[in-house]
C-alpha cells in the first residue's frame, strides 16, 4: 500500500470509529498479520482496548483472523475493505434508486452496524421511516420485511458466516477462535419470520409511548423479554454485488453510446437475467438463448423476434466483443 492510501485508511477509520480503533487498524495495515499481545505491546494500548477495537473492526469486516498450528490467533487488516468505506454513500444511493427509501435505510443500517439480524433491521428502519411520516401514520414491519427480502433475492444483502452447530456441541476445550462457515445455498435464504407491528416514534424522555409520565408507570420485569426470533442469523451488505451493478450500468451506457438505445436495452436485459446466477467476478454471463432474451425484454418494448436476432448478430459481430 502507498503512504497516501495508508493515510486515507487512517482518516476513514478515525472518522467512523475514533482514535483507538484507528490506531489498531493502521498498525495492522502497516505491519501485516499479528497476534493480540504483540499488537498491544507495539501500540502501547491495553489488552482490553485492543480487544474492543478488534471487535469493532471484525464486526465491520475490516479485519480477519486466522488460527495457526500452535493455536496462536493472528489478526490481519483488510486494506481494500477499509477504502470501500468511501463508497458507502454510493451503495446507499443505489439502494434508494432501486428499492426507494426503505431499501436505502436497510442498506444504511447494515453499513453503519456491520452485521445485524433481520428483525433488528426491520424494527429500526420502520421506526426511522415512521419518524418522517405525518402524525397518525406509521410504517408496517411487513412492508420493510418485503423490501429486505427483495434485497436478499437480488443478492445486495447476504447472510454472514456463523459458528457451525458441531463446534458448539464439542465436549473438549473450545478452540482459540471460532471457525465461521456458511453453505452457498444458505447465503440468500431468508428465515420465515412473522414480524408483526409498526414503527414507533421517539418520545420525550419524560413520557413513554402511551403518553404517561414516567412516575406513573408500573415497573415491569426485565425477565419477560421475548426471545429474538432470528437470533444468531446475521446479515451484511454484499459490496461485490453493488460493484457488479455499477459495472453492468457502465456496460449498458457504453453500448448505448457506441450503438443505440435498443442495443443497450438488449444488453441490460441479458445482464439482469444473469445478475444472481453469475458470480460477481466472472468474465462472462451465463449463456442465454435468443428466445429467453426475447421473453425477458421489458413489457412494452415492441420489437419482433426477427429484429432481436438481427441486433444480437450485430452485437456479436462488433469488434469490441461485448457479446
Automatic annotation (TrEMBL):
UniProt gene name: POLR3C
Origin superkingdom: Eukaryota
Protein name per the record: RNA polymerase III subunit C
